[in-house]
Specification:
This is serine--tRNA ligase. It is an enzyme of class 6 (ligase). Belongs to the class-II aminoacyl-tRNA synthetase family. Type-1 seryl-tRNA synthetase subfamily. Its EC number is 6.1.1.11. It comes from Ridgeia piscesae (Tubeworm). The protein is of the alpha+beta class and 253 residues long. The protein has a single domain, classed as Bira Bifunctional Protein, Domain 2 (BirA Bifunctional Protein, domain 2, 2-Layer Sandwich). 25% of the residues lie in helices and 27% in strands. The strands form three sheets. The protein has a six-stranded antiparallel β-sheet, with helices on both faces. A three-stranded mixed β-sheet has the order 1-7-8. Strand 7 and strand 8 form a beta hairpin. The longest helix has 19 residues. The two termini are 37 Å apart.
Amino acid sequence: MCGLQEGCGFSTTGERTQVYRLEPSKHGDVCLAGTGEMPLAGYFANSLLSLDELPQKVMTVSRCFRAETSSVEEERGIYRVHQFTKVEMFVVTANETGHESDDLVEELRSIERDLFTSLGVHFRVLDMPSQELGAPACRKYDMETWMPAKQFWGEISSTSNCSDFQSRRLNIKYTRTDGQVKHAHTVNGTACAVPRMLMTLLENGQNEDGSIRVPPALQPYMNGMTVIEKPDQPLILRWNKLTNTTRRQAKQS
């Protein structure tokens, strides 16, 4: 539902929206999710949790759809795409001391830092100014890596403290020890946006002969491969247009 995305702080209408809306006459009020944060927030919508159940830490691997454009030359190509895969972390926490969500932002940032460090990625962390926060966040960190092909720092991850912005709009609450009901806080962070991570690993890991160094952390998942060599023969790609007949034949086979 588009209302879920609005509740997360993402505008679904207007000229500057990055949200794809499906045809209302056929699908009703439905939008494509721009990030895994949205379905995870929706999972907790209209929830009443107890204090001892918090924090709730979840993650997802999902397809994301964004109507993104950019006038910046360096951001063209696969840096900004309309459909991609992303690993997203999401936390619902209490607000008793006023520091729980701040501490969890640092925890997610630490996870991201450890992940990128293990991959040998050169990155920097930016504590974003207020004009760069967007509607839901009261604090946001961006992580950027150096992309040598276009000679610029590109964002590969972000972590946001949304305090009670989303919980008030999505009705996410918890019961305190004295029985009072209070709105929870939400925190989110990107563990891996696949296209940009591929750009980072390929550009920074390429040797002069065109081969690609595989980071030690990934070698166990690639059968011990340490280098991706350039193939002896050029790859030949053929695109086949599927008709209804060929689809039926493929299913039958």
